[in-house]
Amino acid sequence: MADNHQHPNIVQFFILCLCIWGLFPADLARADDARLTVEKAVWTDGVEARSHGVVYSNTAPVASLYLWMKVTGSEWALQRLQEAGKLPIYHQWFRYSVIGASSEGVTEMIDNIKIPAGSRNLVGALESEINRRGFFDWTTWSMKENIRRGKWVVKVVYADGSAVLCEGDKACQYEILVR
Questions:
Q1: Please, which residues have CB within 8 angstroms of residue 78's CB and are 6 or more apart in sequence?
Q2: Which of 4, 15, 128, 166 is most buried, with most CB under 10 Å away?
Q3: Reported CATH class of domain 35-178
């Protein structure tokens, strides 16, 4: 008879495990929804009508240089990021000094540029887009007018300094060599 009393507990435990297991994928998906996604990022020579100009791959000339991005997110992401004090997002520009063909080491951050995506001024426009489409996408950029030679790195961060994550849950960071 003792075996009959054990059986219902095992069934309840099994059902509880299935319920918990079923919740995790939803929680993980929700965690992904709670952040901005950088859909596309390019180095370019300019921006006109919110579109990027000539795209640079690995190198760029000494001239004005822009990092242009298309950022997307959901209503839930926008709300959670606002509540957590993570908006707006910033581009942090760093310059490595270059001797010959190799980098010496990173200098201090050159600029911490607030970019409009997710700023309080744009929240109304983003919410309108969410109501129409179920999500928002926004093009944004930062630039350096008088860029110097060297290896440049831009890190994309939230207002609290934490990294915006890109593909593979790695920090969004973009590099280019200016010659």
A1: 87, 118, 123, 126, 127, 130, 136
A2: 166
A3: mainly beta
73-113 pLDDT per residue, tens: 998 888 888 888 888 889 999 998 655 544 455 565 677 77
| Antiparallel, parallel or unpaired: β 51-52 and 47-48 | antiparallel
Q: Which amino acid is residue 159, in one-letter code? A: A
pTM, entire model: 0.72
Q: How far is CA 40 from CA 26, 51, 71, 124, in A?
A: 26, 12, 7, 23
Scanning the structure block, which residue is given the tokens 């242009």?
68
Give helix then strand counts, H and E, for the chain: 3, 13
User: Any idea where the domains of the chain sit in the sequence?
Assistant: 1-33, 35-178
For residue range 42-67, what is the model confidence (pLDDT) as tens digits? 999 999 999 999 999 999 999 999 99
